[in-house]
Protein backbone atom coordinates (compact mmCIF):
# COMPACT_ATOMS: atom_id res chain seq x y z
CA UNK A 1 0.00 0.00 0.00
CA UNK A 2 1.29 3.45 -0.91
CA UNK A 3 2.13 5.84 1.88
CA UNK A 4 -0.10 8.93 2.21
CA UNK A 5 1.12 12.50 2.64
CA UNK A 6 -1.64 14.92 3.62
CA UNK A 7 -0.92 18.63 3.33
CA UNK A 8 -3.01 21.49 4.63
CA UNK A 9 -2.34 25.02 5.76
CA UNK A 10 -2.03 24.64 9.52
CA UNK A 11 -1.11 21.35 11.16
CA UNK A 12 -1.42 20.59 14.84
CA UNK A 13 0.83 17.86 16.28
CA UNK A 14 -1.12 14.80 17.41
CA UNK A 15 0.21 15.16 20.97
CA UNK A 16 -1.70 18.47 21.25
CA UNK A 17 -4.97 16.96 20.12
CA UNK A 18 -7.37 15.76 22.75
CA UNK A 19 -8.72 12.61 21.19
CA UNK A 20 -11.64 14.27 19.47
CA UNK A 21 -13.15 16.39 22.23
CA UNK A 22 -12.31 19.66 20.52
CA UNK A 23 -10.67 18.45 17.35
CA UNK A 24 -12.72 18.97 14.19
CA UNK A 25 -14.15 16.16 12.12
CA UNK A 26 -11.81 16.85 9.20
CA UNK A 27 -8.74 16.35 11.37
CA UNK A 28 -10.18 13.17 12.87
CA UNK A 29 -10.97 11.74 9.41
CA UNK A 30 -7.57 12.58 7.97
CA UNK A 31 -5.85 11.17 11.05
CA UNK A 32 -7.62 7.85 10.55
CA UNK A 33 -6.55 7.72 6.89
CA UNK A 34 -2.98 8.59 7.82
CA UNK A 35 -2.80 5.88 10.48
CA UNK A 36 -4.04 3.28 8.01
CA UNK A 37 -1.53 4.30 5.34
CA UNK A 38 1.36 5.04 7.71
CA UNK A 39 1.64 8.58 6.42
CA UNK A 40 2.78 12.11 7.12
CA UNK A 41 0.81 15.25 7.88
CA UNK A 42 2.62 18.38 6.65
CA UNK A 43 1.94 22.10 6.92
CA UNK A 44 2.50 25.34 8.78
CA UNK A 45 2.98 25.01 12.53
CA UNK A 46 1.07 28.21 13.22
CA UNK A 47 4.27 29.63 14.72
CA UNK A 48 6.25 32.63 13.46
CA UNK A 49 10.03 32.82 13.08
CA UNK A 50 12.18 35.83 12.28
CA UNK A 51 13.72 34.16 9.20
CA UNK A 52 12.37 31.22 7.24
CA UNK A 53 14.89 28.36 7.26
CA UNK A 54 12.86 25.41 6.00
CA UNK A 55 13.71 23.56 9.18
CA UNK A 56 10.99 21.12 10.14
CA UNK A 57 9.58 20.07 13.47
CA UNK A 58 8.86 16.34 13.55
CA UNK A 59 6.63 14.47 15.93
CA UNK A 60 5.28 10.94 15.87
CA UNK A 61 2.22 10.04 17.89
CA UNK A 62 -0.72 7.66 17.47
CA UNK A 63 0.87 6.16 14.36
CA UNK A 64 1.11 9.50 12.53
CA UNK A 65 4.15 11.62 11.75
CA UNK A 66 3.59 15.38 11.66
CA UNK A 67 6.12 17.62 9.95
CA UNK A 68 5.63 21.36 10.35
CA UNK A 69 7.50 24.54 9.42
CA UNK A 70 7.43 28.04 10.88
CA UNK A 71 6.72 31.07 8.71
CA UNK A 72 8.07 34.60 8.71
CA UNK A 73 5.80 37.51 9.69
CA UNK A 74 5.79 38.69 6.07
CA UNK A 75 4.73 35.22 4.93
CA UNK A 76 1.77 35.21 7.30
CA UNK A 77 0.78 38.74 6.29
CA UNK A 78 0.95 38.16 2.53
CA UNK A 79 0.19 34.46 2.10
CA UNK A 80 -2.31 33.73 4.89
CA UNK A 81 -3.92 37.00 5.98
CA UNK A 82 -3.40 38.48 2.52
CA UNK A 83 -3.94 36.37 -0.58
CA UNK A 84 -5.67 33.39 1.04
CA UNK A 85 -8.07 35.28 3.27
CA UNK A 86 -8.37 38.75 1.72
CA UNK A 87 -8.28 37.72 -1.96
CA UNK A 88 -9.32 34.11 -2.58
CA UNK A 89 -11.65 33.55 0.36
CA UNK A 90 -14.03 36.47 -0.35
CA UNK A 91 -13.88 35.87 -4.10
CA UNK A 92 -14.71 32.17 -3.74
CA UNK A 93 -17.61 33.08 -1.43
CA UNK A 94 -19.05 35.52 -4.00
CA UNK A 95 -17.98 38.64 -2.07
CA UNK A 96 -16.16 40.75 -4.65
CA UNK A 97 -16.80 43.80 -2.49
CA UNK A 98 -14.41 42.38 0.13
CA UNK A 99 -11.68 41.03 -2.19
CA UNK A 100 -8.29 42.78 -2.12
CA UNK A 101 -6.19 42.27 -5.27
CA UNK A 102 -2.79 43.29 -3.93
CA UNK A 103 0.21 42.12 -6.01
CA UNK A 104 2.30 41.78 -2.86
CA UNK A 105 -0.25 39.32 -1.50
CA UNK A 106 -0.02 37.20 -4.63
CA UNK A 107 3.78 37.19 -4.54
CA UNK A 108 3.69 36.06 -0.92
CA UNK A 109 1.21 33.33 -1.78
CA UNK A 110 3.45 31.98 -4.53
CA UNK A 111 6.55 32.31 -2.34
CA UNK A 112 5.12 30.32 0.56
CA UNK A 113 3.81 27.58 -1.72
CA UNK A 114 7.27 27.33 -3.28
CA UNK A 115 8.84 27.16 0.18
CA UNK A 116 6.42 24.42 1.18
CA UNK A 117 7.34 22.45 -1.94
CA UNK A 118 11.08 22.82 -1.38
CA UNK A 119 10.69 21.76 2.24
CA UNK A 120 8.47 18.82 1.39
CA UNK A 121 10.61 17.35 -1.43
CA UNK A 122 13.06 15.46 0.85
CA UNK A 123 10.15 13.71 2.60
CA UNK A 124 8.55 12.35 -0.56
CA UNK A 125 9.17 8.75 -1.58
CA UNK A 126 8.55 7.43 -5.08
CA UNK A 127 5.18 5.74 -4.51
CA UNK A 128 3.68 8.23 -2.04
CA UNK A 129 0.19 9.55 -2.62
CA UNK A 130 0.11 13.30 -2.01
CA UNK A 131 -3.17 14.90 -0.97
CA UNK A 132 -3.24 18.71 -0.83
CA UNK A 133 -6.15 20.41 0.91
CA UNK A 134 -7.79 23.77 0.35
CA UNK A 135 -7.37 27.15 -1.24
CA UNK A 136 -4.24 28.17 0.66
CA UNK A 137 -2.18 25.64 -1.30
CA UNK A 138 -3.49 25.59 -4.87
CA UNK A 139 -0.03 26.22 -6.45
CA UNK A 140 1.72 23.52 -4.41
CA UNK A 141 1.07 20.69 -6.86
CA UNK A 142 2.47 22.72 -9.75
CA UNK A 143 5.56 23.52 -7.69
CA UNK A 144 6.12 19.83 -6.98
CA UNK A 145 5.66 18.95 -10.66
CA UNK A 146 8.10 21.68 -11.70
CA UNK A 147 10.63 20.16 -9.29
CA UNK A 148 10.24 16.83 -11.05
CA UNK A 149 7.92 14.88 -8.76
CA UNK A 150 5.76 12.35 -10.64
CA UNK A 151 3.78 11.14 -7.64
CA UNK A 152 0.03 10.97 -7.80
CA UNK A 153 -1.21 14.37 -6.61
CA UNK A 154 -4.73 15.11 -5.43
CA UNK A 155 -6.33 18.39 -4.44
CA UNK A 156 -9.55 18.92 -2.49
CA UNK A 157 -11.30 22.28 -2.26
CA UNK A 158 -13.16 22.78 1.01
CA UNK A 159 -14.87 26.01 -0.01
CA UNK A 160 -17.06 26.88 -3.04
CA UNK A 161 -15.60 27.41 -6.51
CA UNK A 162 -16.93 30.71 -7.90
CA UNK A 163 -18.84 31.20 -11.15
CA UNK A 164 -16.66 32.12 -14.12
CA UNK A 165 -17.87 35.72 -14.28
CA UNK A 166 -16.59 36.25 -10.73
CA UNK A 167 -13.33 34.37 -11.17
CA UNK A 168 -12.46 36.55 -14.16
CA UNK A 169 -12.10 39.48 -11.77
CA UNK A 170 -8.95 37.83 -10.35
CA UNK A 171 -5.95 39.26 -12.27
CA UNK A 172 -4.15 35.88 -12.28
CA UNK A 173 -7.21 33.67 -12.75
CA UNK A 174 -5.69 31.67 -15.64
CA UNK A 175 -2.49 30.92 -13.75
CA UNK A 176 -4.50 29.79 -10.71
CA UNK A 177 -6.46 27.29 -12.80
CA UNK A 178 -3.32 26.08 -14.61
CA UNK A 179 -1.85 25.35 -11.20
CA UNK A 180 -4.92 23.27 -10.35
CA UNK A 181 -4.48 21.28 -13.54
CA UNK A 182 -1.14 20.02 -12.22
CA UNK A 183 -3.10 17.61 -9.98
CA UNK A 184 -4.32 14.17 -11.03
CA UNK A 185 -7.56 14.36 -9.04
CA UNK A 186 -9.49 17.50 -8.09
CA UNK A 187 -12.33 17.15 -5.60
CA UNK A 188 -15.24 19.50 -4.94
CA UNK A 189 -17.86 19.56 -2.20
CA UNK A 190 -20.90 19.84 -4.48
CA UNK A 191 -21.95 19.49 -8.09
CA UNK A 192 -22.51 23.26 -8.37
CA UNK A 193 -18.86 23.99 -7.68
CA UNK A 194 -17.67 21.37 -10.17
CA UNK A 195 -19.98 22.79 -12.85
CA UNK A 196 -18.60 26.28 -12.23
CA UNK A 197 -15.08 24.94 -12.68
CA UNK A 198 -16.08 23.19 -15.91
CA UNK A 199 -17.71 26.38 -17.22
CA UNK A 200 -14.38 28.13 -16.81
CA UNK A 201 -12.43 25.32 -18.48
CA UNK A 202 -14.78 25.32 -21.46
CA UNK A 203 -14.69 29.06 -21.95
CA UNK A 204 -11.05 29.85 -21.18
CA UNK A 205 -9.22 26.63 -22.10
CA UNK A 206 -11.57 24.96 -24.59
CA UNK A 207 -11.65 21.83 -22.42
CA UNK A 208 -14.60 19.53 -21.89
CA UNK A 209 -15.22 16.68 -19.48
CA UNK A 210 -15.27 13.20 -21.03
CA UNK A 211 -17.62 10.35 -20.14
CA UNK A 212 -15.32 9.32 -17.27
CA UNK A 213 -15.46 12.74 -15.63
CA UNK A 214 -11.94 13.71 -16.72
CA UNK A 215 -10.33 16.48 -18.77
CA UNK A 216 -7.17 16.18 -20.86
CA UNK A 217 -4.43 18.77 -20.47
CA UNK A 218 -0.88 18.72 -21.90
CA UNK A 219 -0.88 14.96 -22.36
CA UNK A 220 -2.27 14.29 -18.90
CA UNK A 221 -5.70 13.24 -17.64
CA UNK A 222 -7.20 15.06 -14.67
CA UNK A 223 -10.14 13.41 -12.88
CA UNK A 224 -12.79 15.81 -11.52
CA UNK A 225 -15.01 14.46 -8.75
CA UNK A 226 -17.73 15.54 -6.34
CA UNK A 227 -16.80 14.13 -2.96
CA UNK A 228 -18.54 15.94 -0.06
CA UNK A 229 -16.80 16.00 3.30
CA UNK A 230 -18.62 13.95 5.93
CA UNK A 231 -18.90 14.00 9.67
CA UNK A 232 -16.74 11.66 11.75
CA UNK A 233 -20.04 10.07 12.72
CA UNK A 234 -18.89 7.23 14.98
CA UNK A 235 -16.42 9.42 16.88
CA UNK A 236 -18.96 12.22 17.22
CA UNK A 237 -21.61 9.80 18.47
CA UNK A 238 -19.20 8.73 21.23
CA UNK A 239 -18.59 12.38 22.11
CA UNK A 240 -22.31 13.17 22.14
CA UNK A 241 -22.92 10.34 24.63
CA UNK A 242 -20.14 11.43 26.98
CA UNK A 243 -20.76 12.60 30.55
CA UNK A 244 -19.83 16.14 29.53
CA UNK A 245 -22.38 16.21 26.70
CA UNK A 246 -25.11 14.75 28.91
CA UNK A 247 -24.41 17.24 31.69
CA UNK A 248 -24.52 20.17 29.24
CA UNK A 249 -27.78 18.86 27.79
CA UNK A 250 -29.38 18.66 31.24
CA UNK A 251 -28.18 22.14 32.16
CA UNK A 252 -29.47 23.64 28.90
CA UNK A 253 -32.89 22.00 29.32
CA UNK A 254 -33.09 23.40 32.84
CA UNK A 255 -31.95 26.83 31.64
CA UNK A 256 -34.55 26.86 28.86
CA UNK A 257 -37.28 26.64 31.52
CA UNK A 258 -39.77 25.05 29.13
CA UNK A 259 -39.00 27.37 26.23
CA UNK A 260 -38.00 26.08 22.77
CA UNK A 261 -34.34 26.70 22.08
CA UNK A 262 -33.05 27.60 18.62
CA UNK A 263 -29.31 27.16 18.23
CA UNK A 264 -26.88 28.67 15.76
CA UNK A 265 -23.16 27.96 15.82
CA UNK A 266 -20.92 29.74 13.35
CA UNK A 267 -17.50 31.35 13.17
CA UNK A 268 -17.47 35.11 12.70
CA UNK A 269 -17.34 34.95 8.93
CA UNK A 270 -19.04 37.01 6.25
CA UNK A 271 -20.33 33.82 4.65
CA UNK A 272 -22.24 32.55 7.70
CA UNK A 273 -25.21 34.90 7.42
CA UNK A 274 -25.58 35.51 11.16
CA UNK A 275 -26.73 39.12 10.73
CA UNK A 276 -29.38 37.98 8.27
CA UNK A 277 -30.37 35.27 10.76
CA UNK A 278 -30.80 37.83 13.54
CA UNK A 279 -32.98 39.98 11.27
CA UNK A 280 -35.14 36.96 10.37
CA UNK A 281 -35.54 36.18 14.07
CA UNK A 282 -36.45 39.81 14.76
CA UNK A 283 -39.11 39.59 12.05
CA UNK A 284 -40.53 36.49 13.74
CA UNK A 285 -40.78 38.34 17.06
CA UNK A 286 -42.43 41.36 15.47
CA UNK A 287 -45.01 39.40 13.44
CA UNK A 288 -45.76 36.66 15.97
CA UNK A 289 -46.03 38.28 19.40
CA UNK A 290 -47.71 35.09 20.66
CA UNK A 291 -44.35 33.30 20.37
CA UNK A 292 -42.43 35.78 22.51
CA UNK A 293 -41.22 34.30 25.80
CA UNK A 294 -41.87 30.82 24.36
CA UNK A 295 -38.53 30.49 22.59
CA UNK A 296 -35.03 31.94 22.49
CA UNK A 297 -32.07 31.92 20.11
CA UNK A 298 -28.69 30.77 21.37
CA UNK A 299 -26.07 32.03 18.92
CA UNK A 300 -22.49 30.85 19.44
CA UNK A 301 -19.97 32.72 17.29
CA UNK A 302 -16.32 32.17 18.17
CA UNK A 303 -13.84 34.63 16.65
CA UNK A 304 -12.36 33.89 13.23
CA UNK A 305 -9.30 35.61 11.73
CA UNK A 306 -9.29 38.16 14.55
CA UNK A 307 -6.40 40.03 12.99
CA UNK A 308 -8.52 41.10 10.02
CA UNK A 309 -10.49 44.33 10.30
CA UNK A 310 -13.53 42.99 8.41
CA UNK A 311 -14.11 40.34 11.07
CA UNK A 312 -13.90 42.85 13.89
CA UNK A 313 -16.60 44.80 12.07
CA UNK A 314 -18.80 41.69 11.93
CA UNK A 315 -18.42 41.17 15.67
CA UNK A 316 -19.33 44.79 16.42
CA UNK A 317 -22.31 44.60 14.07
CA UNK A 318 -23.66 41.41 15.68
CA UNK A 319 -23.23 42.78 19.17
CA UNK A 320 -25.13 45.92 18.18
CA UNK A 321 -27.91 43.98 16.43
CA UNK A 322 -28.39 41.45 19.24
CA UNK A 323 -28.42 44.32 21.74
CA UNK A 324 -31.06 46.12 19.68
CA UNK A 325 -33.29 43.03 19.48
CA UNK A 326 -32.94 42.26 23.18
CA UNK A 327 -33.60 45.87 24.08
CA UNK A 328 -36.76 45.94 21.98
CA UNK A 329 -38.29 42.62 23.03
CA UNK A 330 -36.78 41.37 26.30
CA UNK A 331 -38.80 41.20 29.50
CA UNK A 332 -37.60 40.86 33.08
CA UNK A 333 -38.09 37.08 32.76
CA UNK A 334 -36.85 36.52 29.21
CA UNK A 335 -34.05 37.47 26.80
CA UNK A 336 -34.74 36.72 23.09
CA UNK A 337 -31.07 36.20 22.07
CA UNK A 338 -28.24 34.69 24.03
CA UNK A 339 -25.22 35.75 22.01
CA UNK A 340 -21.93 34.09 22.99
CA UNK A 341 -18.64 35.11 21.41
CA UNK A 342 -16.42 32.16 22.37
CA UNK A 343 -15.69 28.59 21.35
CA UNK A 344 -16.59 25.32 23.09
CA UNK A 345 -15.34 21.78 22.73
CA UNK A 346 -17.33 19.30 20.68
CA UNK A 347 -18.83 17.51 23.68
CA UNK A 348 -20.27 20.76 25.00
CA UNK A 349 -21.61 21.65 21.56
CA UNK A 350 -23.18 18.20 21.20
CA UNK A 351 -25.04 18.70 24.49
CA UNK A 352 -26.31 22.10 23.33
CA UNK A 353 -27.39 20.74 19.96
CA UNK A 354 -29.35 17.90 21.58
CA UNK A 355 -31.22 20.39 23.78
CA UNK A 356 -32.22 22.57 20.81
CA UNK A 357 -35.66 22.20 19.22
CA UNK A 358 -34.31 23.87 16.07
CA UNK A 359 -30.85 23.93 14.49
CA UNK A 360 -30.59 27.15 12.45
CA UNK A 361 -27.79 26.75 9.88
CA UNK A 362 -28.21 29.52 7.32
CA UNK A 363 -24.91 30.47 5.67
CA UNK A 364 -25.01 32.77 2.66
CA UNK A 365 -22.46 30.50 0.98
CA UNK A 366 -20.62 27.50 2.38
CA UNK A 367 -18.49 24.72 0.97
CA UNK A 368 -20.10 22.10 3.21
CA UNK A 369 -21.06 23.06 6.80
CA UNK A 370 -20.29 20.18 9.14
CA UNK A 371 -22.24 21.91 11.93
CA UNK A 372 -25.48 20.90 10.17
CA UNK A 373 -24.40 17.27 10.30
CA UNK A 374 -23.32 17.55 13.93
CA UNK A 375 -26.74 18.90 14.84
CA UNK A 376 -28.42 15.93 13.18
CA UNK A 377 -26.08 13.41 14.83
CA UNK A 378 -26.70 14.92 18.29
CA UNK A 379 -30.49 14.49 18.30
CA UNK A 380 -32.59 12.19 20.45
CA UNK A 381 -34.17 9.70 17.99
CA UNK A 382 -37.36 9.59 20.07
CA UNK A 383 -37.79 13.38 20.14
CA UNK A 384 -35.53 14.93 17.48
CA UNK A 385 -35.22 18.60 16.68
CA UNK A 386 -35.64 20.17 13.24
CA UNK A 387 -32.77 21.32 11.02
CA UNK A 388 -33.32 24.55 9.07
CA UNK A 389 -30.61 24.72 6.43
CA UNK A 390 -29.54 27.23 3.81
CA UNK A 391 -29.95 26.15 0.20
CA UNK A 392 -26.51 27.65 -0.41
CA UNK A 393 -24.62 25.32 1.96
CA UNK A 394 -22.89 22.37 0.32
CA UNK A 395 -24.62 20.10 2.86
CA UNK A 396 -28.02 20.94 1.35
CA UNK A 397 -27.41 18.49 -1.52
CA UNK A 398 -27.21 15.62 1.00
CA UNK A 399 -29.54 16.82 3.77
CA UNK A 400 -32.64 17.21 1.64
CA UNK A 401 -35.08 16.45 4.50
CA UNK A 402 -34.05 19.61 6.32
CA UNK A 403 -36.24 22.68 5.90
CA UNK A 404 -34.28 24.33 3.10
CA UNK A 405 -34.41 28.13 3.01
CA UNK A 406 -33.05 31.17 1.22
CA UNK A 407 -30.93 32.83 3.96
CA UNK A 408 -31.33 36.25 2.33
CA UNK A 409 -35.10 36.12 2.88
CA UNK A 410 -36.09 37.12 6.42
CA UNK A 411 -39.65 36.07 5.67
CA UNK A 412 -38.69 32.59 4.45
CA UNK A 413 -36.43 31.90 7.43
CA UNK A 414 -38.96 33.16 9.98
CA UNK A 415 -41.72 31.05 8.39
CA UNK A 416 -39.45 27.99 8.52
CA UNK A 417 -38.98 28.56 12.27
CA UNK A 418 -42.77 28.66 12.70
CA UNK A 419 -43.12 25.45 10.66
CA UNK A 420 -40.42 23.73 12.72
CA UNK A 421 -42.02 24.73 16.02
CA UNK A 422 -45.38 23.32 14.90
CA UNK A 423 -44.02 20.16 13.25
CA UNK A 424 -45.64 16.95 14.59
CA UNK A 425 -43.44 14.38 16.28
CA UNK A 426 -44.00 11.78 13.56
CA UNK A 427 -42.79 14.14 10.84
CA UNK A 428 -39.80 15.21 12.92
CA UNK A 429 -38.84 11.57 13.41
CA UNK A 430 -39.26 10.79 9.71
CA UNK A 431 -37.16 13.74 8.58
CA UNK A 432 -34.49 13.11 11.19
CA UNK A 433 -34.24 9.42 10.26
CA UNK A 434 -33.47 10.22 6.64
CA UNK A 435 -31.06 13.00 7.62
CA UNK A 436 -29.23 10.70 10.02
CA UNK A 437 -28.97 7.98 7.37
CA UNK A 438 -27.31 10.50 5.04
CA UNK A 439 -24.87 11.58 7.76
CA UNK A 440 -23.82 8.00 8.48
CA UNK A 441 -23.74 6.64 4.93
CA UNK A 442 -21.45 9.42 3.67
CA UNK A 443 -19.35 10.09 6.74
CA UNK A 444 -15.76 11.27 7.03
CA UNK A 445 -14.33 7.78 6.55
CA UNK A 446 -16.37 7.42 3.35
CA UNK A 447 -15.04 10.77 2.12
CA UNK A 448 -11.41 9.81 2.77
CA UNK A 449 -11.80 6.37 1.22
CA UNK A 450 -13.53 7.78 -1.87
CA UNK A 451 -10.90 10.43 -2.54
CA UNK A 452 -7.95 8.12 -1.90
CA UNK A 453 -9.50 5.46 -4.17
CA UNK A 454 -9.67 7.92 -7.07
CA UNK A 455 -6.15 9.16 -6.33
CA UNK A 456 -4.70 5.65 -6.16
CA UNK A 457 -6.24 4.83 -9.55
CA UNK A 458 -4.71 7.87 -11.28
CA UNK A 459 -1.89 7.14 -13.76
CA UNK A 460 1.62 8.24 -12.86
CA UNK A 461 2.01 11.84 -14.02
CA UNK A 462 4.54 13.49 -16.29
CA UNK A 463 6.43 16.51 -14.98
CA UNK A 464 4.91 19.89 -15.80
CA UNK A 465 6.27 21.50 -18.95
CA UNK A 466 8.39 24.52 -18.16
Secondary structure: elements and pairs:
Elements: E1 4-10, H1 25-37, E2 40-48, E3 56-61, E4 64-71, H2 73-92, H3 103-120, E5 129-133, H4 140-146, E6 152-156, H5 164-167, H6 173-180, E7 185-188, H7 191-205, E8 214-217, E9 220-226, H8 233-240, H9 243-256, E10 260-265, H10 274-287, E11 295-300, H11 309-329, E12 337-340, H12 346-355, E13 358-361, H13 370-378, E14 386-390, E15 403-405, H14 410-422, H15 425-441, H16 444-457
Question: What are its keywords?
Answer:
466 residues; alpha/beta; Rossmann fold; 9-stranded mixed sheet; 6-stranded parallel sheet; 18% strand
Describe the structure.
- It is a single chain.
- This protein folds into two domains: about 5-230 and about 445-455, Glycogen Phosphorylase B (Rossmann fold, 3-Layer(aba) Sandwich); about 240-440, 3-Layer(aba) Sandwich (Rossmann fold), CATH 3.40.50.2000.
- Helices cover about 45% and strands about 20% of the residues.
- It has 16 helices and 15 strands.
- The strands form two sheets. Strands 3-4-2-1-5-6-7-9-8 form a nine-stranded mixed beta sheet, sandwiched between helices.
Amino acid sequence: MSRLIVIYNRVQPMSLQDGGGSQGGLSVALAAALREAGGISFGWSGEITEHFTGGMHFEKANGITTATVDLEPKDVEEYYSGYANCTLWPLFHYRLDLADYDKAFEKGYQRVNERFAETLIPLIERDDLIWVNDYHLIPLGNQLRTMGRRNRLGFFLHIPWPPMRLLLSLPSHRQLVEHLLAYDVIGFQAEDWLESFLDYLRDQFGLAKDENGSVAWHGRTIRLIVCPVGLDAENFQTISRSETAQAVHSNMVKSAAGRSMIVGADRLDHSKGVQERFRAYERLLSTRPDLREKLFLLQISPPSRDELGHYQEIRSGLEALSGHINGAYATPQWVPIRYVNQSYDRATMAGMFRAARIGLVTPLRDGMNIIAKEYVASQDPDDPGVLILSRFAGAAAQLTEALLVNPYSCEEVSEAIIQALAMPLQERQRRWGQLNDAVWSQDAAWWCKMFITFLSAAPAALPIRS
